[in-house]
Amino acid sequence: SSLDNKRDTYFEHHRIHSSSRTDTKKRKAQIQSNRDSHATSYERSRFMEYSIDQVSKYEERKQLKEENRERGFTDYAQVNQKKYERDVMKIKPNLQKSERNEYDDEKAVARLAQHVKGQQEKRAKLHKPSVEKEGDRVSYINQKNARFNRKMDRAYDKHTQETRDNLERGTAL
Questions:
Q1: Which helix (DSSP H) or strand (DSSP E) does residue 23 occupy?
Q2: Of 172, 170, 101, 161, nearest in space to 137 by CA
Q3: What whole-number distance in Å separates Cα of residue 132 and Cα of residue 139?
Q4: 101: DSSP letter
Q5: Do residues 48 and 31 make contact, with C-beta atoms less than 8 angstroms apart?
Q6: For every residue of 130-151, which 3-state class applies, written as one string?
Q7: What pLDDT is stored for residue 151 in this prediction?
Q8: Cα 107 from Cα 105, distance rounded (Å)
Q9: Which residues in the chain come in under a pLDDT of 50?
Q10: Which pLDDT belongs to residue 68?
């Protein structure tokens, strides 16, 4: 019957998934017991599942990350130096050729040119020139302030128009 089928399906599903969970629990318990019996660190016991190459690459990445970590702002020269070092790491220059004063191949030159163009595009996006409309009254310092001033004008312009006109003519009280 359909009830029997549903029950069997449920038990089969439960058996499959519970066995994988119990296997994971057993493996973690075994690692824990190995760690306790050998009195080693948890990190070392965690690395038992990986190859030596994988662990050494992990440690190297971890050390490099620690070296390159931001330590806070001191001056612009330091910030520029860090940016330069990051850019050099991204470009990956051939140091043996540059020590012998040989020119890099065309691919490296193209890669450098592409990197410089990318930097220029980033800089252009960050520093957009302000576009002012002709005839507009400039009473703002940035776009957010301009938006605020437009809202204020909509609400109070009809009340302050006469005072503003008098101030412009110089006939204010």
A1: helix 2-38
A2: 161
A3: 11
A4: T
A5: yes
A6: CCCCCCCCCCCCCHHHHHHHHH
A7: 92
A8: 6
A9: none
A10: 73
